[in-house]
Structure to design on (134 residues):
């Protein structure tokens, strides 16, 4: 059974940093694309970043709003994907989710810049709250 467990959320002041973790189990890590999404109250879920093949092929993806501030990485031995978030802004406040999809079905990472990108990911974690105060 595919399981994804996020951690690392919390309350931080604007300009601060947080590192989110997504611990994966139940699947072969480098055969999946793993993405980060977020959803703020009253807003549509949006993609944030993605790492392809558990990071094995080195491909990472970011939406424009987080480029140069967020960095996605992975530790294959720990089967964990990280999202380092720097220079956080109040508009980054949201519940952050990690999601996964097998590469042999679709290259989900290549879809994250599209509207409703979450449709391309079939497995989801429970989310972790990130709150950025001004």
């Amino acid at each position: 059974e595919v399981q994804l467990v996020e951690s690392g959320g919390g309350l931080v002041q604007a300009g601060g940093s947080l590192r989110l973790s997504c611990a994966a189990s139940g699947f072969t890590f480098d055969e999946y694309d793993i993405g980060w999404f977020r959803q703020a109250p009253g807003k549509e879920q949006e993609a944030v970043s993605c790492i392809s093949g558990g990071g094995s092929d080195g491909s990472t993806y970011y939406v424009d709003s987080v480029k140069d501030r967020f960095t996605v990485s992975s530790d294959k031995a720990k089967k964990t994907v990280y999202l380092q978030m720097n220079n956080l802004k109040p508009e980054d406040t949201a519940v952050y989710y990690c999601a996964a999809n097998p590469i042999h079905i679709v290259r989900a990472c290549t879809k994250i810049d599209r509207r409703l990108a979450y449709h391309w990911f079939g497995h989801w974690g429970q989310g972790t709250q990130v709150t950025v105060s001004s």
In short: Residues 101 and 121 are 5 Å apart (CA to CA).
